[in-house]
Each structure stands twice: as structure tokens, then as C-alpha cells.
Design brief:
Blueprint (H helix, E strand, L loop, with lengths): L6 H36 L1 H12 E6 L6 E2 L5 E13 L7 H8 L7 H13 L6 E7 L1 H10 L6 E10 L7 H4 L2 E3 L2 H8 L12 E3 L2 H5 L1 H5 L3 E7 L5 E8 L6 E4 L3 H11 L4 E6 L6 E7 L5 H4 L4 H8 L9 H4 L9 H11 L8 E3 L2 E4 L2 E4 L7 E3 L1 H6 L3 H11 L1 H9 L22 H7 L3 H4 L3 H5 L12 H12 L10 E5 L6 E3 L12 H17 L3 H4 L7 E7 L22 E8 L6 E7 L5 H4 L1 H13 L1 E2 L2 H8 L11 E2 L35
Parallel strand pairs: 2-10
Antiparallel strand pairs: 1-8, 2-3, 3-4, 3-5, 6-7, 8-9, 10-17, 11-12, 11-21, 13-16, 14-15, 17-18, 19-20, 20-21, 22-23
Helix pairs in contact: 10-25, 14-16, 14-17, 14-22
Family: Belongs to the transpeptidase family. MrdA subfamily.
Protein name: Peptidoglycan D,D-transpeptidase MrdA
Pathway: Cell wall biogenesis; peptidoglycan biosynthesis
């Protein structure tokens, strides 16, 4: 029997299914709608930013580094742009093989390989490192055609630092180098972290390091549209970088060049400054080095040659080299005697050629002695015995307290990093310096040699020049500084370094006058008179000879029988003109011997340059290098006639007036201490 379908039941079930399906569709639609609302409304800003970041990239724009100029506007450090061939080690499978293959396309020297190896050791594998710099357009084109063969290798345009005069004033200017890991971590923790995005190089020494904040500039940004593969397509927006400010030094680079020429191959240092302002006019350390070696990353061989050289060319001798001051210390000892009342200018001592103390014979530099000596002649003739006795009368702690006021054993506060304190001894210092009780005790015999600038005394030429400048400036101590002003790159407004006095007048005017008068006598009739004979100005000075090794009581110092590096140092201090000093200086020529023979002649040329606008003749320069010309010889040039840059054709020389004609060469006086 045929079963009849229940139509009503079928319709009811159908309607239920349609209702369920409809509800499901509505729910799905609502879910989609809510998701759209969430994405389009709630997360609109966030997703728009993500979309933009997928489409664009923010690229830091490294600023041009600021210029460094000398006091007359001569450029000492600038920038140039060039192409570099860079490798990211983490993206290269076989680095050596890749470099070998690259050398078939672009010339890669052994020095390039060594430098790259040193950079790899100092950097992380994901950093892009320069393999070759300063590629020519032809080399760039060659590589572009072969680029597909070298994943992880790119051509980049970079700015490079340039030091146009190479080794000249390198310790002052300093150099830039690649940011190492320690510096990177320090920058990341500083407020300047964002400003160093994209920057690979930073100041490492000298003004480049100390004025990094002023020279670096402000990093800009470019907003670039990128393809799906990350390739830049076009610039959407740009916030340009602000170049670094211009740093102008007080240094006169022509004066600096002259002094470095006069030193020749000899080692030593010279600091010349304006005693009234503290501006440093010359800051010489010999030997020097070429800062351009560091710009692209120095190779291991060059670094080793500099770092392991017995001459220590990387040592800034003017700032960090410490030496016994020798007899240049005597004027300050004499002033201490006047200030404490231990001596009067007229008081005399008898010098038999030695001073006996505790059974030890302290010898004078003059065989047979100087006879009766007052304060004036003790400085002019550089009598050791006078100062042996004086040191014994003063005592080490009084010497310390009196000489410390002039900055001996203290930091001057110069505006570049790395200055050392030197050593002005005292009983308190010795107790701290040594561990054993017998070493901590100060022995009376140790005081005697302090009087002639020997013993534990060790100071920098910067300290000595600052002390002489203070004396020349009638006891007013000025803070020395290398930077004259910083010029804003946008407004061109200069921020001038203040001429800052340090403390009050540190000695009585009458006592200072006695010492200055005696120092004038040194150059007129004393140990350095041969160097200053014929000078059309009056100057004060003091020669000095500092022992490197101690000579036994029964031995005599004979330079020719000693190894060169064990011979005495030659020192000289000076100021001029005596009545109104505009320059003060301190110089040391290492292992040269007598200050009168080797240091005073250089000082004479420095003062002639500054006061008379004279530059020594070529003949004179060669003679000074050999210690054979106390006073200038030949026809001096004016500073304007000096070929500049060095090596340029010589400018025609105008006839010299009678007033500027050089004096006849004087015979050398007996070298003194």
C-alpha cells in the first residue's frame, strides 16, 4: 500500500532549515561586519601606519661633518664624497672566494684586504664594511655590470674626512674612526642615540674627539617608497640633515708648520700661547702621524708600525709627555724663595762648584763653581749650587705648595681630552705612592735635586708653558684653550671661547718683577744670549737641561759616549716682549743636550714669527735642525711670502726694509743649563 507524504511536515522542516541557514548567514554577516568595523575604525590608525611602513622606509641622512679651521681661516679638516665597495660578511657564503672574485672586477690591494680584516675583527658580521674606497666612475660601472654575481656586496656613496696637510698638527686636530662596540653601547645609552643613526664614524682624538658634539651635526631622514622586495623607488618626503658647526682654532697653522720643520726628525714638544688670553698659538708634538690613515680604517700593518714604533708617534708629547723641567724650574724656585722670605734678591751664596749634603756631593754644572752668586746671577748663569741650597732651606712641602699655585702637578683644563697631571712631589704624595714603609719616608737628600728641576719632578710642556705665561702675565693665570670659536652653520653666529682666569694673582708684583728682570738677563747676557743677539725686542727666557739617566758622583757626563736615547733633554722657556708679553712658550727637544744650543734657537724663530711676522730662510731652517744656528741666518721671509699650501711654488720676495733686515750671525755662547 502506497505511503502518503506529509506535506505539512516537510514544509515545516524546510522552513526550519531556511531559518537556521538565514540566521547563520546573518551571524556570519555580522561577524564580517564587526571585523570590518574593528579593522577600519578601531585599528584604523595602527593598520594605516603598518601599511605605510610596508610601502615606505625611513632612511637616516648622515650630516656633513663640520670644518676645522686655524685662526686665519685655513681649512685643516674637511669632507669629500666617494663611492665605496662594501661587504656584509653575514650575507656572503665564502668571504675569501668572494673577495678574490671581486679583485678580478675592481682592484683590491693587500692593504685593502688587511684593513678589511681588521674591521671584521672589530665589527659584527651583519654590519656593512668597506672593502675598497674611492672607486672611480669606471670601476663603479664595471661592478654594476657584475653585481648579480655578488650577493651581500654593494656600492655605496659615503662622505670621507680629509686632512689636507697630512701629518701637520695631527695631535691637535686628531682623526675620526669607525665606531667600535664600546662606543656604540655608550651612544645607545645616551640622549644622542637617535642623532647617530646611520653614522659609522666618530671623533677619536684631539679636537675631532673633544668637539664631537659640535662637529657631528644633526641627522636628517628621508621617507622612501619601496617595492615588495625592499628596493627604494622614490622619495616621498625629506627632512634634510643639518651639517656640523665650524670649529675655529686659536692655532696658527703656519707657525705650527714652521716649528715642525725646525724640529726635523728630532723628538720633542713645544707649546706657545698668548699669556693674556690663554689662546694656544702652536701645539707641537714630534714625531707626528698621518690622520688620513684612520679615515678609511687603518690596516694592521700600518697600525702596528705606529703603535710599536720606539719613537711613539701616537703620543701627544705636549699634552701627555712628562719630563723633568731642569733649570727652567729655577725662576719659580727663586720666586718661592721671595714669597716665603727665605731669600732676598741681593742675598748671595758662595758656589765652589758643588754642594755637600749628607756625605753626598751635588755637583754644579760649572767646573770650579760660580763664586759669589745673588738671585739675578743664579738665574742668568743658571747656578745649580744656589738652588741646591735653596731647596734644602725651603723643604719639599713648601716647594710643593708654592709651585702648585703655578699649575705644576695640576691639570690646566685645556679643551681637549687626555691631559695628564704630571708629578709635583710632596711627603703626602710619597706616602700614597708607595706601599712599603721604608719607601714612604721622604729623605732630606731627595729634596736637593728638586731645586734644579730634577728628582721626582715631571711635568708636561703645556704645564710649563702655562706657568711661564702666568709669570709673564704678572701672576694672573689664564686657562689655556685651543678652540677660539665655534661658528653656527645655520646662523653663522660665532660662539667665542671665553678668556677665563683661574684664581687670583698668585704672587706679589714686586717679586714677579725681580724674576722677570732676571729672565730678561738670561737672553741679554746669559745662557741663551747667542740665540737672541740682534733681536729688535726684549724677551725673557730660561734654558734647561734635564737628565734622562742619573750620573754617578765620580762620573762625568759625555754625550758622545752615551746611547742617543739616554742623553739629556734640551729645554727652554720664554716670553716676549718683556714689557708687554704677547707670547709665552715652553719647548723640549728630547735627548738633544743643552737647551741653549737646541731649544732656544727654535724659540727665537717662534717669537720672530709672532712679533715680527718673519719666517726663517731655508738655509736657516736646515742649520737649526742641526743645532748650528743660534741666531737667524740668511734672509728671512715674511709670513705672507711663505709658499702655502706647503710645497706650492715660492711667491716672489719683496725687498726687505732696513728695519727688517736680519742681524749678523753671532758666535755661539757657551751652552748653559
Amino acid at each position: 500500500m502506497t505511503e502518503l507524504r506529509n506535506v505539512e511536515a516537510d514544509l515545516s522542516r524546510f522552513r526550519a532549515r531556511v531559518l537556521v541557514a538565514g540566521i547563520a548567514v546573518v551571524v556570519c554577516f555580522l561577524l564580517v561586519l564587526s571585523r570590518l568595523v574593528y579593522l577600519q575604525v578601531v585599528r584604523h590608525d595602527d593598520l594605516l601606519e603598518q601599511a605605510e611602513s610596508n610601502r615606505t622606509a625611513i632612511v637616516p641622512v648622515v650630516p656633513n661633518r663640520g670644518l676645522i679651521l686655524d685662526r686665519n681661516g685655513i681649512v685643516l679638516a674637511s669632507n669629500y664624497s666617494a663611492y665605496t665597495l662594501e661587504v656584509t660578511p653575514s650575507k656572503v657564503t665564502d668571504l675569501e672566494q668572494t673577495i678574490d672574485a671581486l679583485s678580478q672586477v675592481v682592484e683590491i690591494s693587500q692593504r685593502d684586504r688587511r684593513r678589511f680584516k681588521k674591521l671584521r675583527e672589530e665589527s659584527k658580521s651583519f654590519e656593512s664594511l668597506p672593502l675598497r674606497t674611492r672607486l672611480s666612475d669606471e670601476e663603479v660601472a664595471k661592478f654594476a655590470g657584475q653585481h648579480y654575481r655578488f650577493p651581500g656586496v654593494e656600492i655605496k656613496a659615503r662622505l670621507f674626512r680629509s686632512y689636507p696637510y697630512g701629518e701637520l698638527a695631527s695631535h691637535v686636530i686628531g682623526y675620526i674612526g669607525r665606531i667600535n662596540q664600546t662606543e656604540k653601547e655608550k651612544l645607545d645609552d645616551s640622549d644622542d642615540a637617535a642623532n647617530y643613526r646611520g653614522t659609522d664614524y666618530i671623533g677619536k682624538l684631539g679636537v675631532e674627539q673633544s668637539f664631537e658634539a659640535q662637529l657631528h651635526g644633526i641627522t636628517g631622514v628621508d621617507s622612501m617608497e619601496t617595492s615588495a622586495g625592499g628596493r627604494a623607488m622614490r622619495r616621498l618626503a625629506s627632512n634634510p640633515a643639518t651639517p656640523g658647526n665650524t670649529v675655529k682654532l686659536a692655532l696658527d697653522i703656519k707657525l705650527q708648520h714652521m716649528v715642525e720643520e725646525l724640529f726635523g726628525e728630532r723628538r720633542g714638544a713645544l707649546v706657545a700661547l698668548d699669556p693674556k688670553t690663554g689662546e694656544i698659538l702652536a701645539f707641537v708634538s714630534k714625531p707626528t702621524f698621518d690622520p688620513n690613515l684612520f679615515v678609511e680604517g687603518i690596516d694592521q700593518e700600518s697600525w702596528q708600525a705606529l703603535n710599536e714604533s720606539i719613537d711613539k708617534p701616537l703620543l701627544n708629547r705636549a699634552l701627555r709627555g712628562t719630563y723633568p723641567p731642569g733649570s727652567t724650574y729655577k725662576p719659580f724656585m727663586a720666586l718661592a724663595a721671595l714669597e716665603t722670605g727665605k731669600r732676598t734678591p741681593e742675598q748671595t751664596i758662595f758656589d765652589p762648584g758643588y754642594f755637600m749634603f749628607g756625605g753626598h756631593r751635588f755637583r754644579d754644572d760649572k767646573e770650579g763653581g760660580h763664586g759669589n752668586v745673588d738671585m739675578y746671577h743664579s738665574i742668568v748663569a743658571s747656578c745649580d749650587t744656589y738652588y741646591y741650597m735653596l731647596a734644602n732651606d725651603l723643604g719639599v712641602d713648601t716647594i710643593h705648595d708654592q709651585l702648585q699655585r703655578f699649575g705644576f702637578g695640576e691639570l690646566t683644563g685645556i679643551d681637549i681630552f687626555g691631559e695628564v697631571r704630571g708629578l709635583l712631589p710632596s711627603t703626602a704624595w710619597k706616602r700614597k705612592a708607595y706601599k712599603k714603609p721604608e719607601q714612604q719616608k721622604w729623605y732630606a737628600g731627595e729634596t736637593i735635586s728638586l731645586g734644579i728641576g730634577q728628582g721626582y719632578n715631571n711635568f708636561t710642556m703645556l704645564q710649563l708653558a702655562s706657568a711661564v705665561g702666568t709669570l709673564a702675565n704678572n701672576g694672573v693665570k689664564m686657562k689655556p684653550h685651543l678652540v677660539k670659536e665655534v661658528m653656527d652653520i645655520i646662523t653663522h653666529a660665532p660662539t667665542t671661547t671665553e678668556h677665563e682666569s683661574v684664581g687670583e694673582v698668585i704672587a706679589k708684583a714686586a717679586n714677579i718683577a725681580v724674576i722677570k728682570h732676571a729672565m730678561v738677563g738670561v737672553n741679554l747676557e746669559g745662557t741663551s744670549s747667542a740665540s737672541f743677539r740682534g733681536a729688535p725686542y726684549t724677551s725673557g727666557g730660561k734654558t734647561g737641561t734635564a737628565q734622562v739617566v742619573q750620573i754617578k758622583a765620580n762620573e762625568k757626563y759625555v754625550a758622545s759616549k752615551m746611547e742617543e736615547r739616554f742623553r739629556d733633554h734640551a729645554l727652554f722657556t720664554a716670553f716676549a716682549p718683556a714689557e708687554d708679553p704677547k707670547i709665552a712658550l715652553a719647548i723640549i727637544v728630547e735627548n738633544a743636550g743643552f737647551g741653549a744650543k737646541y731649544s732656544a734657537p727654535i724659540a727665537r724663530r717662534v717669537i720672530d714669527y709672532w712679533l715680527l711676522n718673519q719666517y726663517p730662510s731655508l738655509e736657516d731652517i736646515e742649520a737649526v735642525k742641526k743645532g748650528m744656528a743660534p741666531a737667524p741666518i740668511g734672509k728671512p721671509r715674511t709670513v705672507a711670502e711663505l709658499p702655502w699650501p706647503p710645497g706650492a711654488p715660492v711667491a716672489p720676495v719683496a725687498p726687505a726694509s732696513a728695519a727688517s733686515a736680519p742681524a749678523k750671525t753671532a758666535s755661539a755662547a757657551s751652552p748653559g743649563r
